[in-house]
């Protein structure tokens, strides 16, 4: 595992293929129940996160969150010597949950099996972070606590600072991409140029 982590940071062409698992893990689950639970949480918070960020920004944040939470999981597992699979799906879902709970801390939430007990989104986020911090510190193997924490912290950071720093400043990057694409299609002769 240490060798694999090292190759992520080298310029060796064969190591580029090792980065794709971090992206693909965004869609990976341990079991059918794990996938069902994640999809339920995503469905529950999807309208809120899309209304906050819009479809395109949500998609970019979700994919980034999967990669970031998988990376945090890899680092934690290397530090503790536990070499188990790291799946970024739960971390990406935690990013969505944390982003919504950060932007709407007074929203009322309930657990599907206990709908009579309601709590605020801010308190739910604090409880989840405390649970995953304890799980990481005590070595619990119930969930990938490092991926959850990485996703939650990324979600909180993104809606607080990242939107302003990244998404609102994307125009120069988009223009550069468009110019590069236009030059490349013009050289091929068969492409159209705008």
From TrEMBL:
GO CC terms in record: mitochondrial inner membrane
Catalytic activity: Cleaves type-1 transmembrane domains using a catalytic dyad composed of serine and histidine that are contributed by different transmembrane domains
Keyword terms of this UniProt record: Hydrolase, Membrane, Mitochondrion, Mitochondrion inner membrane, Transit peptide, Transmembrane, Transmembrane helix
Entry's EC annotation: 3.4.21.105
Listed GO biological process terms: signal peptide processing
TM region(s), chain numbering: 21-43, 49-75, 111-131
GO molecular function, one term: serine-type endopeptidase activity
Membrane topology type: Multi-pass membrane protein
InterPro entries, per the entry: Peptidase_S54_rhomboid_dom, Rhomboid-like_sf, Rhomboid_protease_S54
Domain Peptidase S54 rhomboid, first and last residues per copy: 22-162
EC class name: hydrolase
Protein family: Belongs to the peptidase S54 family.
Name of this chain's protein: rhomboid protease
Organism name: Chordeiles acutipennis
Lineage: Eukaryota, Metazoa, Chordata, Craniata, Vertebrata
């Amino acid at each position: 595992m240490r060798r694999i982590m090292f190759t992520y940071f080298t310029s060796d062409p064969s190591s580029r293929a090792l980065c794709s698992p971090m992206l693909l893990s965004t869609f990976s689950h341990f079991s059918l129940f794990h996938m069902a639970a994640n999809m339920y949480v995503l469905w529950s918070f999807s309208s809120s996160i899309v209304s906050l960020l819009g479809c395109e920004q949500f998609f970019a944040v979700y994919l980034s969150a999967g990669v970031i939470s998988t990376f945090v999981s890899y680092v934690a597992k290397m530090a503790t010597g536990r070499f188990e699979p790291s799946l970024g799906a739960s971390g990406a879902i935690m990013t969505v949950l944390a982003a919504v709970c950060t932007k709407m801390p007074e929203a009322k939430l309930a657990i599907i099996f206990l709908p009579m007990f309601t709590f605020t989104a801010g308190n739910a986020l604090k409880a989840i972070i405390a649970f995953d911090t304890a799980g990481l510190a005590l070595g619990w193997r119930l969930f990938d606590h490092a991926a959850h924490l990485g996703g939650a912290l990324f979600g909180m950071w993104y809606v607080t600072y990242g939107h302003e720093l990244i998404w609102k400043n994307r125009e120069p990057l988009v223009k550069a991409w468009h110019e590069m694409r236009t030059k490349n299609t013009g050289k091929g002769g068969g492409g159209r140029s705008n």
